[in-house]
Design goal:
Blueprint (H helix, E strand, L loop, with lengths): L1 E16 L1 E6 L9 E11 L4 E5 L5 E7 L3 E14 L13 H5 L2 H6 L14 H9 L10 H15 L1 E2 L10 H7 L1 E2 L1 H14 L4 E8 L15 E8 L3 E6 L4 E2 L4 E7 L8 E6 L4 E10 L7 H4 L1 E6 L9 H6 L11
Parallel strand pairs: 7-8
Antiparallel strand pairs: 1-6, 1-15, 2-5, 2-14, 3-6, 4-5, 9-10, 9-13, 10-11, 11-12, 15-16
Helix pairs in contact: 4-6
């Protein structure tokens, strides 16, 4: 499947800010099932762009706008050819649980077995597991258990933007029983890790099929989960839409949770309030889209700092960007 992706992020400032420093996780990955045909970034105001690979192998772009500006627009365009992943087996043998406890898996996937950030066990999560009787799933093989878990999360939670925030812990979605793809991914990751199954957060895009039952927003980025099983390697699950990740899913980055791989994050130098607009289009064919129609305004972003942005501040971020998966 050949897909064209356009992702526009625009920051409007109430008064000119003196400098902006940004990092982007927007380039689709290159892999056996995903061929990156093209990727380009347009910045307004223009800036010199640099790139590096982070500790998880993701392509990260960063830039500095050192002059005063009252608007920053980032436009990422990609063309990606995807192929369906290998069809996993219907089930695995129960010995897979022993293979998951091997020294190799425990050492090689340490980062994806330990609680981190938003993906961690809480008392509310334990109550949810008991309420849904999900502990029984561990009596099945790991692949069957993960499939059933994805389906259980899909059935237990409604999809609704605006209920949770970019920095919401999983207890918020557990209380509301509503959320967005980020929330469901964090829930599933926390549960899988508690079972001893390595799980990672995947940030990217989905070519949405509303007629086919997808409930995620077609005008936003998407998030799902990959789990590692020794017999099958990494397999993707999309609990938002109750499907396994396939050729309609485009991977940009993987990490321990959302905080490792936000589409964009940064700091700015100034005291002005800012407002964020985000627009995403994933299409099979090219089509003209007008900017006002394409961009959607989200809640106001955080106030900028008055000191010069440092490397530490960039990593810690001031949430100038409000989570793009929340659109």
């Amino acid at each position: 499947m050949l897909l064209e992706i356009r992702h526009v992020t625009q920051y409007q400032y109430a008064a000119p800010v003196r400098e902006s420093v940004m990092e982007l996780w927007m380039q689709p990955q290159k892999s056996a099932r995903q061929r990156l045909v093209s990727f380009d970034l347009d910045l307004d105001p223009p800036a010199q762009v640099f790139s590096y690979a982070d500790s998880f192998g993701n392509a990260v772009y960063h830039f500095d706008v050192p002059q005063p500006h009252d608007r920053l627009t980032i436009t990422a365009r990609s063309a990606v050819e995807t192929v369906p992943p290998a069809v996993p087996p219907d089930a695995l043998d129960m010995g897979e649980w022993d293979r998951l406890r091997s020294d190799f898996v425990q050492g090689e996937h340490f980062d994806h077995l330990r609680p981190h950030g938003f993906a961690r066990e809480t008392e509310a999560l334990h109550a949810f597991l008991a309420e849904q009787d999900l502990a029984r799933l561990r009596m099945r093989d790991p692949l069957t258990a993960v499939r059933a878990l994805s389906q259980a999360i899909y059935g237990a939670f409604g999809y609704e933007a605006g209920i949770t925030r970019a920095d919401s812990p999983i207890d918020d979605v557990l209380a509301a029983r509503k959320g967005v793809c980020q929330d469901f991914a964090h829930l599933m990751i926390a549960i899988c890790r508690s079972w001893g199954i390595p799980a990672r957060y995947v940030s990217g895009y989905l070519f949405t099929d509303r007629k086919g039952g997808d409930r995620s927003d077609p005008d936003a980025t998407h998030a799902w989960v990959e789990v590692f099983l020794p017999s099958t390697r990494w397999i993707g699950f999309d609990p938002t839409n109750n499907i396994e990740a396939g050729e309609r899913h485009v991977i940009c980055a993987v990490g321990r949770d959302y905080s490792d791989v936000p589409p964009s994050r940064g700091v700015y130098k100034g005291e002005a309030e800012s407002q964020l607009s985000v627009g995403v289009s994933v299409r099979k064919a090219r089509a003209a889209i007008s900017e006002p129609e394409f961009l959607r305004v989200s809640r106001p972003a955080a106030r900028g700092g008055s000191r010069r942005p440092s490397a530490a501040a960039l990593i810690e971020q001031q949430r100038l960007q409000q989570m793009q998966q929340q659109q």
